[in-house]
Amino acid sequence: MLAAVPEAQPPVAPHPDIAHLAPLLGVWRGSGRGEYPTIASFDYHEEIHFGHVGRPFLTYRQRTRHAEDGRPLHAETGYLRCAGPDRIELILAHPTGITEICEGTLKVGDDSLRMELGSTALGRTTTAKIVTSLGRSIHLSGDTIDYSLRMAAVGQPEQHHLAASLRRAE
């Protein structure tokens, strides 16, 4: 028996509480570089998808691949929520056994968004590496997102780990 194919739904306007995040909606692609004292530096390609369903959050899905051989590197899935006009929350699950809750500031300009986030809670399975803090700086300007990620893990203090630049793909 074949499964029914759902009919296409009409577009839904973003919830008023997140309307100012609408410039993030869509697919973003680009490249970045990762480094950390415990690993060899690497280049990667990335795709991020921000979506919504009319509720007061954006959906977030991220995937990376190694720049040289294309093998999958990392993925994150979660939600972006507003906690007020200048406050933002990011809730993520990582396939490495880590969950991440980050909170921080949001600045909205004419054609830009700037988020500064720091982890307020990290969860881990018994087999996940020990990550004690994460911080993210995300800047949207026009059709470009630039971000950096800081991490404290495996006995190292919080420091730079990733930076990438992505362009709107749609």
TrEMBL record:
Q: Where is this motif: GXWXGXG?
A: 26-32
- Can you provide one Gene Ontology molecular function annotated for this UniProt record? heme binding
Q: Which residue numbers delimit the THAP4-like heme-binding domain? A: 18-168
Question: What EC number(s) are associated with this protein in UniProt?
Answer: 5.99.-.-
Q: Which cofactor does it need?
A: heme b
Fetch the InterPro entries from UniProt.
Answer: Calycin, Nb(III)_bact/plant, Nitrobindin, PeroxynitIsom, THAP4-like_heme-bd
* Protein family (similarity comment): Belongs to the nitrobindin family.
**This protein's name:** Peroxynitrite isomerase
UniProt organism field: Nocardia pulmonis
High-level lineage: Bacteria, Bacillati, Actinomycetota, Actinomycetes, Mycobacteriales
